Amino acid sequence: MLDVRGLRKVYDGSGRRIEAVRDLTFSVAAGDLVCLVGPSGCGKTTLLKCVGGLLAPTGGEVLLEGRRVTGPPPGTAFVFQEYGRSLFPWMRVAANVELPLRQKGLSRRRRGELVRDALDAVGLADAAQAYPWQLSGGMQQRVAIARALAHEPRLLLMDEPFAAVDAQTRADLEDLVRGLWRERGITILFVTHDIDEAVYLGRRVIVLSASPTVVREQLEVDLPDARDQVRTRVDPRFADLRTHVYEQIQAAKRGTPPAVEVTTSDTPPPR
Ligand SMILES: Nc1ncnc2c1ncn2[C@@H]1O[C@H](COP(=O)(O)OP(=O)(O)OP(=O)(O)O)[C@@H](O)[C@H]1O
Question: In the chain, what are the domain boundaries?
């Protein structure tokens, strides 16, 4: 579904030239849930913005369903970390969710159905007439997810969406995303700096190097599909995978090359 080929991004301005992303190549199949992790500042947000057509790459290309991305592609939705800034405080929850639908030329009735379905899916059917500032941080992020869902995306891009919420809310939101992914078959690219979150959520994890960034490793998360915040996290395989990803990121920070050639296969680390 998604092909990132030789992606390069150089920021050039104010006398500074920063090569944020050097050469990124990877693919995401339709219906996959891929988590991207890497050292702080390695260009995860830059990559996501290029994939979502919000930034033009300096080199290489992003192909979505075979078409080159040159602007925000239809069928793609974003969820950002800063829910507080992505919702309009003067609009009620339902109006916030409906807003992007107004550009789609849908009837009022259809928009209403989509808003109700999306709020229902995130467990906020009762909050439709509230204002965002009357809700907790976790609930506001649910509204942002509902707004993305109402758009009926085929590709959902999530940029550290749970970084600002407390641990319990985060666990609930992780399970919400896994549930939506399994029920709706949406392809999800999820950026996080949290290794446990990447392994718990992902069907695959892509580890990025330090900036200027390349793909350091791709691995398949061979944990059972039905995940559970308690049982999955004490599974010895979960511990193996998180240790492996942690070591890869530490090595990336030191600039140590991978022990084996960078793989583009889904080969999991040795047991
Ligand atoms: N608009 C910009 N102009 C200039 N440099 C930028 C811009 N945006 C990002 N950068 C630089 O590009 C590099 C990658 O930034 P980016 O935000 O993509 O990384 P990140 O991995 O998402 O960071 P973090 O882990 O801290 O969220 C950093 O060195 C950053 O300073």
Answer: 1-75+155-271, 89-152
Question: From CA 59, how far away is CA 61, in angstroms rounded?
Answer: 7
What is the tens place of the pLDDT at every residue in 109-131? 999 999 999 999 999 999 999 99
- The pLDDT of residue 203 is 95
What is the tens place of the pLDDT at every residue in 74-101? Answer: 889 999 887 777 899 999 999 999 998 9
191, HSE (Cβ side, Cα atoms, 13 Å): 23
pTM to 2 decimals?
0.90
What's the 208 CA to ligand 1 centre distance in angstroms?
Answer: 14
Q: Select from 18, 159, 208 the residue to mutate for testing ligand 1; criterion: most ligand atoms less than 8 Å from CB.
A: 18
Nearest CA, atom 12, ligand 1: 20
Class for domain 1-75+155-271, per CATH? alpha beta
- With a cut of 60, say whether residue 161 has pLDDT above it: yes
Q: In 4-23, which positions are buried (b, 16+ CB within 10 angstroms) versus exposed (e)?
A: bbebbbeeeeeeeeebbbbb
Rounded Cα distance, 251 and 258, in Å: 8
How far is Cα of residue 143 from the mean position of the Cα atoms in its chain? 16
pLDDT for residue 41 = 84
Tens-digit pLDDT profile for residues 222-240: 999 889 999 999 999 999 9
CB–CB of 8/60 below 8 Å?
yes
Measured in Å, residue 19 CA sits from the centre of ligand 1 at: 10
Phi, psi of 181 (to 5 degrees): -60, -45
Contact 227, 66 (CB under 8 A): no
